[in-house]
Amino acid sequence: MAAAPAAPEPETLAAFEAAKGFMPVQEGLALYAAAAGAGAALGLPLLEVGTYCGRSTILLADAARATGTVAVTVDHHRGSEEQQPGWDYHDPEVVDPEVGRMDTLPAFRRALHNAGLEEHVIAVVGRSPQVAKVWGREVGLVFIDGGHTDEHATNDYEGWAPHVAEGGLLVIHDVFPDPVDEWTGQAPYRIYLRALESGAFTEVSATDSLRVLRRTGRGI
Ligand code: SAH
Ligand code: MG
Description:
Helix content is 36%, strand content 21%.
């Protein structure tokens, strides 16, 4: 089995930094280390919920390449609530003028192409709960970075956490235990607590708002 590299390739890091998105560098490096570790240990797919323009996907793709597996990334590409026109995280560059709605798929495709990592990613365009329902195998890592309402976060947890293999990782972004730090709500924090309370997951590391948990028990 492939050894786990500690850090992404320099070209990957450059492509990551150039990509639009919401993943700070330090948290991205922690995500990469988790993904490379899981890929090397289990050789199973690395799955992301919340592609947006591919910023974090680039890191998962590099980890997949380095460890001989594949990254799968799921998004309907129409944006989360807080990314819609008029909201704080809206970017008018990712609106499809013909349709009049957000479409992050073209920017994602460009970013992945520029990173030279297209062949290491399977992009699934669809709603997370629907995709989770037809998904039929274990994965080495699930990275939850999708919608931030309780409904979305709960669906992502209930839909995807069951697919994490024994010894695999559940990574959750935007975990803010203190409501003062909150910028998109505390739903990710609540699913993080639920994962710990389930007894199925044990915390491995915390880097700013990124939490890495390992499956050490059954169920969710
Ligand atoms: N990982 C990205 C940021 C993701 S932003 C980065 O590193 O920059 C959150 C994304 O989740 C948005 O693109 C939004 O379209 C997607 N999303 C929100 N709810 C979703 C759902 N129910 N199904 C699929 N994708 C969803
Ligand atoms: Mg996020």
